[in-house]
Amino acid sequence: MNKRLYFLTALLVLLVSSATGCKKKTSDEAGGAATAAPGAAAPAAKSTESEAIMAALDKKDYDAVVSGLAAMKQSATTAEQLTRFEGLVDDVKIRLLEEAPSNPKAAESLAVLRRLTGGR
User: Fold this and answer.
1) Residue 22: pLDDT above 60?
2) Are 92 and 53 contacting, i.e. CB atoms less than 8 angstroms apart?
3) How many helices (H) and strands (E) in the chain?
4) How many independent structural domains does the chain possess?
5) In this structure, what are the phi and psi dihedrals at residue 96, rounded to the nearest 5 degrees?
6) Full domain range(s) for residue 54
7) Which of 27, 30, 83, 98 qualifies as a cystine partner to 34, CB 3.0-4.6 A?
């Protein structure tokens, strides 16, 4: 089970790093005029990401939940975004804690999420 967990973590890191690399290139290429637009659209984007993560949690798609949170963590740059991220992580952890005793995938995802948010 540990090998599987490490594999999922490595896969998650790979997906997040490739996804965030693409986002940075598009925002850098856009130039100064588009710099104001992402600031205005950031709350809407975060809301959409949060809704997608909670929808995946409702569907019990735990891999999508963890990968979505990892991507959200990488893209959070301001204090407000980090606060939203931390609140969402708390909500997800509570749901996973409720489901973990009866669902091994939820327990595994909770362990990965703890590593992701624990700074390790």
Assistant:
1) no
2) yes
3) 5, 0
4) 1
5) -65, -35
6) 1-7+43-120
7) 30
| Structural domain includes residue 34 | no
At which residue do the structure tokens 């996973």 appear?
A: 96
For the record, the structure tokens of 120 come out as 């390790």
Q: 1, 108 in Cβ contact below 8 A? A: yes
Helix, strand, coil percentages, rounded to 5, for the chain:
85, 0, 15
User: If we measure between CA atoms, which residue out of 61, 79, 81 comes closest to residue 71?
Assistant: 81
Question: Which token pair is 17?
Answer: 């790093």
Q: Is 33 helix (H, G, I), strand (E, B) or coil?
A: coil
Per the prediction, the chain carries an average pLDDT of 76
Annotate 63-87 with DSSP letters as a single string. Answer: HHHHHHHHHHHHH--SHHHHHHHHH
Q: The whole model's pTM is what?
A: 0.60
In this predicted structure, the answer to whether residue 27 has a pLDDT above a threshold of 50 is: no
